[in-house]
Structure formats: C-alpha cells, structure tokens
Amino acid sequence: MTGRARVFGDDINTDYIIASRHKRESLDPQVLRRYLFEEIDPNFAASLEPSDLIVAGKNFGCGSAMEVAVTAVLGAGIKAVLARSFSRTYFRNAVNNGLLPLICDTSLIREGDRLAIDTSNGLTIRNETTGESTDAAPVPQIMMDILKSGGLVPYFRRYRDFRV
User: Which range marks the domain in which residue 123 is found?
Assistant: First the structure.
C-alpha cells in the first residue's frame, strides 16, 4: 500500500474527523467523505487524492464512539491511518470496518511525503520521500485476518466464527 501523507497533530477527536451533525443527514460513505476534517480544514476533502494516508500524533479518534468517523475515512478512499496512538474505540471500529490502524512513530513524517506500507513481513512504513523506515506495532493475527477480509462482517460471512 502506498500513498501521500496527510498530516494532523495530537488529539484528533471524532468530531474533527466528521462533525456528528452529518450522520443525521446520511450514512452513505460517499456523502460523508465530503465533510472529512472540515472542522480543521474546510478544503481538506476536496484536496484528497486516491490512496492518501492519514498520519497523526497521539490519541487519534478520541471523543465519542461514532463509527461514522471510520466510515467517512473509508469513503474518502483512505485505507490506513498511522498514529502514535489511537483511542481504543476508534482502533477497534477501524479494524471492524476494514481500515488499517497502525501505531508507529509519526514524528518524522511531513505533509505530502510518499509512504509505502509493507504488510508482508511485519508492518513496516517506508518514507519514500526521505528514505527513512519505521516499524509499526504488531497487530494481532485475528485483527489482521479481519482487515484482510475487509472488516468484521465480511470476515463472519466467510468464516462464520472466529478462527483460532
């Protein structure tokens, strides 16, 4: 997976990701994507390119447990979020919906850097702009299986239970 880094700071709460008022209008990911991060940058959604990656500091996804905060990110075509840490709820909502949450040192990643995520042997992020690499914290195998299935619902459709 490769993409352009879109960088945010610490404590990005779910209302910054998508204001809760928008979930009353629609739950369609293609509608919600238009409002992504509008509270921080009203032009952000219009500036997205296919395969962009969200990069943040610590405590990404804090605040309410709105699953729509993951839905809007996926609707925008973003496949992974890299952060120094996540709220537990956002991390789990991400996995359950097929969005790859990676815990790693993001301090050297800058806006617009080209990143490559290698999931073939552990989780390594290579900054193709600077040449630096960092490893992400391991993700439990069951969560990787859920992610590879596209989320929890597709996983259960396929396996009908948790594989052990």
Answer: 2-159
Q: Is the dihedral of CA 100, 103, 104, 109 positive or negative?
A: positive
Q: Is residue 128 part of a domain?
A: yes
Separation between Cα atoms, residue 94 and residue 90, nearest integer Å: 6
Local mean pLDDT, 10-residue blocks, the chain (164 residues)? 97 93 78 92 93 97 92 95 97 96 97 95 94 95 94 92 74
What's the pTM?
A: 0.92
Residue 153, H or E segment: helix 152-159
CB distance 98 to 80 below 8 Å:
no
What token pair was written down for 82?
Answer: 């890299």
Q: What's the CA gap between 104 and 54, in Å, rounded?
A: 12
Provide the CATH number for the domain around residue 57.
3.20.19.10
The predicted pLDDT at position 21 comes to: 83
Q: What is the pLDDT of residue 160?
A: 86
Tokens of 42: 């009203």
Give the total number of structural domains in the chain.
Answer: 1
Q: Is residue 164 part of a domain?
A: no
Cα gap 119→2, rounded to integer Å: 11
What pLDDT was estimated at residue 164? 59
Is residue 11 domain-resident?
Answer: yes
Contact 135, 116 (CB under 8 A): no
